[in-house]
Amino acid sequence: MKNKIKPWLLQAKEYDFTDIKEGIRLHLNESPFRPPEVVIEKASRAMLNCNRYQNPELLERFRELVAEYNKVDKDMVYASPGADGSLRSIFYNFLSPSSTIVINNPSYSMYKVYSSTVGLKLKEIQLKPIGEWWVEDNEALVNASREAEITVIDNPNNPTGSPVLTKDIVKEIAETTKGLVLVDEAYFEFYGKSVIDLISDYPNLMVVRTLSKAFSMASFRVGYTIADKEIVKALMKSSTPFDIALPSLVAGITAMENRGYVKGIVEEIKRNRETMLLGLRRLGLKVYNSVTNFLLVDSDKDIWNELWRHGIAIRKLGEHYRISIGTREEVEMLLNVLGDFL
Ligand code: PMP
Asked: Is 158:104 a contact under the CB 8 Å cutoff?
């Protein structure tokens, strides 16, 4: 059987994550809040039609709302099951085993996973910690991108929480590369800066977004890509109007129609982020600044195990720890556990 599977797929990394059934989930950059009741109600009601395929007009409605939210034309919106759905579509449709991909190290872990499943050649540009931020090596990035089929940068960056790209650098990469440029703005709502407005001048630029973070809908699996309409058309050819499940699509539409709620969530997360950042620094930990809903922390003590023992899950990444921002109570609980431990 194995000889029927492409060799690079046999070697590809498997998804690894900490399973947690009960306790405090600060390991996956989720929102600790639910979206408004109306989102859940409408999605639940949609389930009564689960025996039917949805009306394709629903997808068009979602694309229309996303277009309005981002001030672009509807034909520049590709809707997908999560941002990951967009990433997979882009990787599987536009790249092939001989293609080169440029990413940052560190960056969102799935870029490497999808690269390995397509068999791409990987070039990593190292981010450097300077003071309280992680910083891009602009020159190395621009140079490496030149001959790459795709350059994928998460901005802000996961797991550091730093913004790593300026608009000028994105312009320079898009201008000088022979390939595509994908800016992953999964954490846009916390950061507030986007490069979507550059797409009209740079048709090789794509922006990926998600409703999993600030919109607080991780398990509905709704995301999208904003790109030149020819790219969107090509992506839509390899998908169907049913790729996003009906309840999720209805939830996505309702969330977009009621998107004012996101502001409150972002404000609360930022407040809690400040509390956690100051609290952790007071305990003597090295904590990097962040424009996202998580913090990167350095510690020479095993804080992962200690927190896990108390039912709090965080993410261990080499010698760093990534901690999502939870509710005020969750942040206080985490600070208390670490206060006793350190
Ligand atoms: N991009 C980045 C940078 C992420 O951090 C994540 C999720 N942690 C995703 C994409 C995937 O998001 P989604 O849930 O929409 O698939």
From this structure: no
Residue whose Cα lies nearest atom 2 of ligand 1: it is 186
CA 155/CA 159 separation, integer angstroms:
11
Q: Is 81 in the pocket of ligand 1 (CB under 6 A)?
A: no
If we measure between CA atoms, which residue out of 195, 250, 196 comes closest to residue 222? 250
d(CA 31, CA 252): 16
Task: Give how far Cα 211 sits from Cα of 109, 161, 222, Å.
Answer: 19, 18, 6
Does the ipTM surpass 0.95? yes
Task: Assess whether the C-beta atom of 158 lies below 6 angstroms from ligand 1.
Answer: yes
User: What's the pLDDT score for residue 266?
Assistant: 98
**DSSP code at position 131:** T
Question: What is the DSSP secondary-structure string of 66-82?
Answer: HHHHHTS-GGGEEEESH
* From 16, 108, 207, mutation site for ligand 1 pocket: most ligand atoms within 8 A of C-beta: 108
Nearest to 7 by CA among 88, 116, 140: 116
Closest ligand 1 atom to the C-alpha of 85? 16
| Ligand 1 center from residue 210 Cα (angstroms) | 7
| 29 pocket-lining for ligand 1 (C-beta < 6 Å) | yes
- The predicted-structure confidence for 40-51, as pLDDT tens digits, reads as follows 999 999 999 999
Half-sphere exposure at residue 339, Cβ-oriented, CA atoms within 13 angstroms: 10
What's the predicted TM-score (pTM) here?
0.97
Q: Cα dist. 162→104, 144, 292 in Å?
A: 12, 21, 8
What is the Cα Rg of the chain in Å? 20
Instruction: State the Cα torsion 317-318-320-326 to the nearest 10°.
Output: 20
